[in-house]
Amino acid sequence: MELHAVRYDDRTFDEPSVDGINFSTVRFESCTITRPRGKPGRVNDIAFIDTDLSGPEFDFHANWLSTVTGSTLRDVVIEGRGAQFPIRARVLDSTITGELCNVGFGEHYRYDQLDGVDLSGCKLENVSFQGIPMERVKLSQEDEALVVEDWASVANDVYAVVLEAMDGPDQKVEYAAIEVFDALESDSSLFRSRYGITRPENSLGYDERRGARYVHELAFTDKPEWFMDVIHSLYRKVGDGRLVPFLYQ
């Protein structure tokens, strides 16, 4: 079975079987979907608008989604391609509980990504929020510890520490520093694109609109201990000890 260019409005689906069904450009608006079961076939461009989805027995791939607005996704597992690859879905004014794995969210030049989104009931594993002011997003208390409130005030200092580490003789330090370098370049690039800013010399080009940043490179769960030790040491060199408080405990 194949569903293509289909829209469902004000429908209730209780334990629907999606086994083997291909979904392409399907929109659910003002629907309730409870415990969908089976394993879907090919899936792309799924939109949830003012919809309540709960307890799917299969994991979602992040690239299945095109839009999630005004919706609640309960007890879902959403898997992406990696924290460095922002998904193309627009996610706004919604609540997600369950688990996000290897997912990158990126600010979009046409709209404010993740505005009014509650992820406080979601476990985050290798999740990034690139160019997104985290004032828009509600996180768990544990993840809030990784948020730097005024990122623009410290970003260039972090960048300088990273550049110095990349030029050093220790290959392990260089390798870990490159990871942070890539994260900073991606974040700042999306911010500048959003606001049409030309990158100035000797600066990442942030201003006060950047707001708070979730420092995802401090929260990797799939990196070796030595790698994380190096990244922690790089951040300890920045600021007066208040940048990310748990690093100094």
Automatic annotation (TrEMBL):
Superkingdom in the source lineage: Bacteria
Protein name as catalogued: Pentapeptide repeat-containing protein
Organism: Corynebacterium lehmanniae
